[in-house]
Amino acid sequence: MSRVGILVFPGSNCERDVFTVLSKFSGLEPELVWHTKNDLRGYDAFIIPGGFTYGDSLRAGAIAAHSPVIRELKKISEENLPILGICNGFQILVESSLLPGALTVNSSHKFVCKSARLVVKNNSTPFTTMFKKDESISIPVAHGQGRYVIDNRAYRKLERNNQIVIRYAQNDINGSMNNVAAVCNEQGNVMGMMPHPERAVWIQMDQDIRPEGSGVFESLRNHLLWH
Amino acid sequence: MSELTAGETKYLRKKLGRKPSAFELDVVSAEWSEHCSYKSSKKLIRKFPNRSKFVIPGLASDAALLDIGLGYVLAIHIESHNHPSAVEPYGGSATGVGGVIRDILSLGARPIALLNALRFYPLDNANKRYSQSSRWLLRNVTKGIADYGNCIGVPTVGGEVEFDRGFSNYCLVDVAAIGISKREKIIRNRSNKRDIVFLVGGATGRDGIHGSSFASKKLSGEDRSAVQIPDPFTEKLLIEAVLEAVDRGCVNAMKDLGGGGLSCCLSEISETISKGLEVDLSKVHVKEDGMSPSEIILSESQERMLVITSQTNQAYLTEILSKYNLSYSNIGSVIEGKNLVIKYAGDVIMNLPSELICRAPLIDRDTIPPESKSEDRNLYFRERPSDLYKSILKVLANPNIASKKWIYEQFDHEVGIRTVLKPGTADSSVLRLENGKYLAVKLDGNSKQCDLDPYHGTMCILSEVCRNIISTGGKPLAIIDHLQFGSPENAHIFWAFKQSVRAIINYCEFMRLPVVGGKVSFYNENNLGPIKHSPVIGSIGLIDRSEWIMMPRFGSEESIFIIGNTKDEMGGSEFYETTGRAGNGKVPIVDLNDDMRNAKAVLRLIREDVVSSLHDCSKGGLAITLCEMAMRGGNNFQVDLDKIPNSCSSISNLLFSETPSRYILSTNKRKRLNTMLSAISGLEFSEIGMTTNNGSESFLHHSKLNSPVILTQKNITDSYENLGTIMERTPVD
Amino acid sequence: MNTNTSKSRFIVLVNIENKPYVSDPEGETILRDLIMEEGYSVVESVRTAKSLKMIVRAKNPKQAEKMVMKICEKLRIFNPIISSCTVNVVKSLP
Questions:
Q1: φ, ψ for residue B15 (rounded to 5)?
Q2: What is B372-416+550-733's CATH superfamily?
Q3: Predicted pLDDT of residue A134
């Protein structure tokens, strides 16, 4: 059994969704971890779920990035443990400099909730090995501050290092630079993604959404099984 | 600031045997406002049927409870925030969401879904100034609901929007919430002497003082009491903390604070637990210094809950509240007797029976039927195929019909991973429940029809909302209502209100549906006059198996059937509205026997697995129903209009009449379906055409037309996206 | 609107903030959960605001401010029910 810590902050919303989904995958044992915890030993991976930590005050993720649990996470990230941030989790990871770049207000200036077509560009992270390279998948997005921004030089470095893991296949989502939907750190163990894979696990009636989010969690399970 | 009438003042003095103090007067007048006391409507709405085998009796409080099996219960409630939203749409609509969520929370249930019903002035093609104001309202109401609902992590799964000239410089914002709980976790509101009263959440400030009196008057100018600042983050903490406290069994009784603030909350909970309360207002945590006792007790500051816990559980409760960094104050305790004792810094400033405060003297209002508004003239309309084609596209482009994508894409409708049918995909929203069943839920309204004929208009809404549940495979379980009218002091308006109530009673008694929650909102008026009568009806239904979930989505090569007769019933129709004939025509009449027969037939077909796609035929009429099914399925249709059972005097009436109780469905088992329907005596139905695949166009044939009406997917879709087009064309107003 | 080119240009800063008696949950959260949490007890209060920077043509700074205020009121750039608005010329442009 691999223990996956789901970090919960005041204002997190998707922790129970991620918990429910992880519980469906045999071999994964999810556990909710409150943000004041300052000892993260004993876990095999971490997920920071979506939500509106601290009501998105200042900037999405800005206040949560100062939590004790994130200070610990920074130490642990160097041990190569898989860390996944989804939506607000991604925002927290960039605000705490665990991932490069910034996420800012959508170019439409509106919250957007819809199914997004995506292309997997890097299938060697712990969260994407179950996908083929350049595979097209659909996963819903739901965010108001998901426009990925980074300076040109740093962007080129991301491309060189294969750190852009997923892109949007359509350009009407949030105005992200070159349609970036997910990035990872240089080592590849920390990844942030704006789309919500936990929302595309059960087969929905809506044919637009196939259960393609499962791949993210299956990849994690396989990674933990073999590492 | 006393708002009591001369009669009420006299009654209060007689009951007290003395002159009330200024403070007592403040408390009583808040509770006796129309908004809190229902003094005009209570006698009438008491007659709603409210029992069924699903309803859990004896817990009548903020929201009704339904037993949905396997130990789970559902709570449902509806609220409006019309006055505040018309003045400050962002904060008004947002705090409206907060209020209804706390109604659900106060039962100990976790909120799992939000819906809304919104009404505005038309967005364009009308008075320029009003339209601009309407776009401003829509933009900010949408953002207010989105920012609040999204932040607290409760999905907004569905809604209903109407645009009408009856809402100039005004808007109606109704929000409904659904909660789920285990039966044994529900708060029973039983409390003992010496239990402790906590006020939890946001600090109490001068915001929203006299808000409920404000909502009991017509809107005039800009008013500070309407200012309510939403704080969804505190609400989110409140939800999690309260549910954790409920889970650990440290809540004996609980109530949210809404209109009337602490004064209404304290008197009502004292009545509910049949005990007295002693509360010291100087202990309330406040936002600003120097607040008077009246200001503290009347404040309508948001994101507050009253929690009553035992001495032994007090420490557990405060531990949980501290974990979430929530402010709270221990403001008093439960006492013997049934009085509400209010102190300030130790001194008693009020000691009155809670019952006296809670029960305003009820009023019998006069009713006078108005002159008939609707003219039933037969209006000539040219019916060449090109005229009909243009009309279909025009009705589709009418924001009342057109896709509401611009609105619902701003709402997180998926958090909670239980949304099976999302907004915009089907006739009602469908959610996955913990007990393995599925919940269908929908709100509907139709102020155009209700304005012309409040009785039959309300009947039409009831019939439509149930059809919407049935069209996704659900069996309606219960009804909620929200009756929104102008001033009850106007005898014509009160007459209309009574008609609407009578319709709900008649429909629900016939269909054996309980009314499990409701709300009355009067004084929806501004200096331009009262709104159109706007009852909003909600329904929830259960779907036992996922195979029974239905969508309005044509496949290819399927047979199309219609169930129900089509009549010349054009009153309040979108077709008349779109073609400049609003106010004419007869409002459709629901034949209860037909309604029931057709509904039962459709449910049986679904359970026998002979239906491929299904859609209720209502707003916009038959032509619109067919176009929507074609669009959503990405396939087309060939329909022979001569085959439709009807008594219409023209082709346009046949295409656009809004006769209730009709369904359109497609099947690839036409023979079996035919046999099954033929066996039902009195059922009107017929096979009217075929669906075709994606590549072709859609055709409507009629023997009186020299060529068919031809529609392409692109024409239909472009028209249908008109609401977004209008809103994006004018990005800032 | 007069677009006389002989006028000067000014940078005008528009500041929109909740009125003093209207609460500001975002400011309170930043104070409580970030600044206080990190131990900076010298900060007493935080209020958030929205600011717009406009470059306008006008005869003089006073006229620039007056004109911008009028535009803000007329176009409902702020909602007078909850917000107060201040307008200041911060720089004259050549």
A1: -65, -40
A2: PurM-like C-terminal domain (3.90.650.10)
A3: 97
| Helices B232-247 and B314-323, packing angle to 10 deg | 140
Q: Does B229 touch chain C (CB under 8 A)?
A: yes
A71 touches chain C (CB under 8 A): no
Active site residue A223: no
- What is the per-residue DSSP string for B216-268? TS---S--GGG-----HHHHHHHHHHHHHHHHTT--SEEEE--TTHHHHHHHH
Residue A21 is part of a domain; what is its CATH number?
3.40.50.880
Contacts of A62 in chain B (CB under 8 A): none
DSSP of B372-427: P--B---------HHHHHHHHHHHHHSTTTS--HHHHTTS---TTS-EEE-TTTSS
Contact B427, A131 (CB under 8 A): no
Q: Is A105 on the interface with C (CB under 8 A)?
A: no
Beta-carbon separation of C81 and B207 below 8 A: no
Domain boundaries, given as residue ranges, for chain B = 1-32+188-360, 372-416+550-733
Cβ A199 vs Cβ A148: under 8 Å: no
This model of the complex carries an ipTM of: 0.96
DSSP B371: P
- Tell me, yes or no, if A11 comes closer than 8 A to chain B by beta carbon: yes
What whole-number distance in Å separates Cα of residue B522 and Cα of residue B493?
Answer: 10
CATH code for the part of the protein at B1-32+188-360: 3.90.650.10
Structure tokens at A62: 């800005």
Among B88, B140, B324, most C C-beta atoms within 10 A, so best to mutate, is: B88
* Rounded Cα gap, residues A99 and A70, in angstroms: 13
Residue B126 confidence (pLDDT): 74
Closest-CA distance, B233 to chain A, in angstroms, reads 5
Residue with tokens 């403070």: B23
Instruction: Tell me B514's DSSP state.
Output: -
CATH of domain C8-21+49-93: 3.30.1280.10
Predicted confidence at residue C82, as pLDDT, reads: 80
Q: Do B236 and A55 touch (CB under 8 A)?
A: yes
Closest C-alpha to A197, from A52, A8, A21, A33? A21
Task: Answer yes or no: A87 catalytic.
Answer: yes
- CB spacing of A205 vs B430 below 8 angstroms: yes
First to last CA, chain B: 37
Q: Which residues of B touch A56 (CB under 8 A)?
A: 151
Q: What is the mean pLDDT of each run of 10 residues along chain B (733 residues)?
A: 82 94 93 91 91 78 80 94 89 95 95 98 88 94 97 97 94 97 92 97 82 58 64 98 97 93 94 96 93 94 96 97 97 97 96 94 93 65 92 96 97 95 94 94 97 96 98 96 96 97 98 93 93 97 94 96 96 90 89 98 97 96 97 96 96 96 97 96 97 88 96 96 90 58
- Contact C22/B207, CB-based, under 8 Å? yes
Domain residue limits at A147: 2-226
Q: Do A142 and B415 count as a contact with CB atoms less than 8 A apart?
A: yes
* C-alpha triplet A30, A32, A35: angle, nearest 5°: 140
Which residue in the list A14, A87, A95, A184 is annotated as catalytic?
Answer: A87
Quick one: how far is CA B423 from the chain centroid? 15
Number of domains in chain A: 1
Tell me, what DSSP letter sits at residue B317? H
pLDDT at position A204, please? 54
Give the neighbours of chain C: at least 3 Cβ pairs within 8 Å.
Answer: A, B
